[in-house]
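Following up on my earlier thread - several people asked me to post the actual chain instead of describing it. Fair enough. Here it is, all 319 residues.
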Amino acid sequence: MNISTCFTNRHFLIVDDEEFVRTLVARFLKQSGAAGVVEAADGNEAIAAIHSYDMLFDVVISDIHMRPTNGLELLRAIRTGAGGLKRNTPVLMLTAYAEADFVAEALALDADAFVVKPVGRETLIDRVVRVLERTIPIQPAASYASVGGGDAGTALSTGVTERSAEVEGGPVAAARHVALEEVKANSILAQDIRFGDAQKLLLAAPVILTQALLARLKDLRYLHNSYSHLWVVEPRLPEEELVSSGDGASTESALTALHAVETRDVPQQMLRDLFLAPALMGPEAASQALVDQIRSQTDDVAERAQTRLNRENLDSFTA
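Reply from S.P.:
Thanks for posting it. Predicted structure:
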């Protein structure tokens, strides 16, 4: 991939109270071909810059700890659309080891990526490219308004309240202890992720570990070495289960439906049930369950996904 092509016509807003950091990040971006870079010393200046410049910022790169308005407050303002801010603006957070307690809140506010200070060029550009190529679908504004409020160690709200079936010998049926780097996308987190001496909660189980969520956990692995391995229930590939059912027409229809929607658009409870089904019901029964559930849910899921995309496109057009 040509980095300069990726950065062509891209505009960035850098928010940090340290001038040295802003200058360094700006230099890295410009060397990579960024069309424009604007700097701000705190969240208030950042919001003013967003409103005052004609350009739309492709990515906001913000430190967490600033005064008077910190990076979490800025991120919350963006995600809730305060003052007309574009809610799905990608936000990359810079964090130092001393700010480790605050990353759970940033994760809950759907920061798109993290870079642990000191900022290195290769790491920064890698994260920016990832954010530009695939932004994270955002939740309704109300779900962000209730997050944190500046307190450290706020857990990510998953929207899943009922735990998976508990069995002897492990927190969840078929759970395995897997290295973070080897966790399969769409596995189910079976045990809370905690970090530090005080064992603060970073991510509550159960939750679907989407590719985007796994990427952000990997961003932070150098900040929190306590979760190098996770307890997860790995997905039995729907393709394998459906093929074993022998129902050709239903299988093809269900597979097409499954691949037509993003994981984030599928209800967490439905996904968890689908992936747990092979372990709890047996392959044959699970195969039919997959077909039936995907059939019954896909039309509604696809309609909501299209509505969200239409709304985001409209926001982009009118912004």
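The CA atoms of residues 266 and 301 lie 6 Å apart. That should answer part of your original question.
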